[in-house]
Amino acid sequence: MTRDGRTGGAPRTRIQQRNRRAILDAALDCFSAHGFRGATLDQIARAAGLSKPNLLYYFPSKDAMHAELLSSLLTTWLDPLRAIDPAGDPVEQILAYVHRKLEMSRDYPRESRLFANEILQGAPRFGDRIGGELKTLVDEKCAVIAQWQAEGRIAPLDPHHLIFSIWATTQHYADFEVQVDEILAQGRAAQFDAAAVFLDTIYRRTLRP
Amino acid sequence: MTRDGRTGGAPRTRIQQRNRRAILDAALDCFSAHGFRGATLDQIARAAGLSKPNLLYYFPSKDAMHAELLSSLLTTWLDPLRAIDPAGDPVEQILAYVHRKLEMSRDYPRESRLFANEILQGAPRFGDRIGGELKTLVDEKCAVIAQWQAEGRIAPLDPHHLIFSIWATTQHYADFEVQVDEILAQGRAAQFDAAAVFLDTIYRRTLRP
DNA sequence: CGTGATCCTGACCGCACGGTCAAACATTTT
DNA sequence: AAAATGTTTGACCGTGCGGTCAGGATCACG
């Protein structure tokens, strides 16, 4: 037994790296598609091409896999917001944020759904992370937006609700993918191109001072 | 044994009405909070104040409860969209739709989350209903919106994505309630008032020809 | 009051789940 | 080549799940 419980502990061997990666990828598939309780270890094991006990050789428990996924997700998930530059052009900064978020929905729909599943069910295993760094970052960026508004550089709008609307409209394409697919009879690429045009338009109109 | 499997079958006695109601209400609580697999019959039974076998006296299975909830949900869920009047004023019609949807998120958050849970996980027990009446209705209303645009009465925007954005922004307040609560430090009523103002503003700006 | 229909429950069943473990297998080190 | 370390697995365990059933309690009604 070599596994330590530490989340960030650098895996020593190549085989550990490969297997941990495979497990987390399979777990992401299952958790995002069926929720935490809906996903089973056997399912994850099969998807990862490993046996169930072998999964538990690399991770102490099902919760541990889920926790690691969520934990490593939050950071990258907030990066686009973090990248909003107070020194940049207000409208372009916010629009760039919209586009980055939309691209994340296109390129990482599983991560979006994992997140959505967790929040939907009351964030039972996420808890303080939301009230913590997320709220801090959001409040910080809202202050920037409020400042821009005070300078008359974008239209006055409740910054928090503006951010909510950006989250909602962009993540919708990942979280509700089956619905979107069913209603739009076209390929994913075309869907996202059209969505980009649409969101660009409405936020440009919305933000114009 | 008196129960027939029919979904619309009118319950004969008062006690049947009361208990079926209580069960469906408890089931809605559980399913919306934990997803289909996450909810257990014992949990639902406790919430309904009945014993587990008694639940299965009124419903043949857990799936049946879930199916009945979803089935009776879809109709009322689409009513606000159905109410869009081609003969009315375009901007006001669409804004009224936005407000109705937002009110549904405020007044029926459990239903919204039940729906979200189902779609998120690929609509495994919903299936053709989406491709059926939902798509039909949406396409119909999109045609109305396209007509309005052709007449120059509202701004040209992809109608499907417009509807997606309305769904996303309004349902967000129900589906991601814990996140919204955590970030906004205020009561629910104030949240929804602010959201109404915000959405009214952005869609007014967006739709103006 | 009696009697048939309806309503309710404790005890139980089979199964699948998360997790354990001892032992086999593989790889590296000495 | 053998010892030590690291990796994998089949078999197993306890629990909680959805669901069943025989029979008891309760009700509606003649």
Automatic annotation (TrEMBL), chains A, B:
Residue ranges of every copy of the HTH tetR-type domain listed in the record: 17-77
Matches recorded under SUPFAM superfamilies: Homeodomain-like, Tetracyclin repressor-like, C-terminal domain
GO MF annotation, one: transcription cis-regulatory region binding
DNA-binding region location: 40-59
DNA-binding found in the keyword field: yes
GO biological process: negative regulation of DNA-templated transcription
Protein known as: TetR family transcriptional regulator
Taxonomic lineage from the root: Bacteria, Pseudomonadati, Pseudomonadota, Alphaproteobacteria, Rhodobacterales
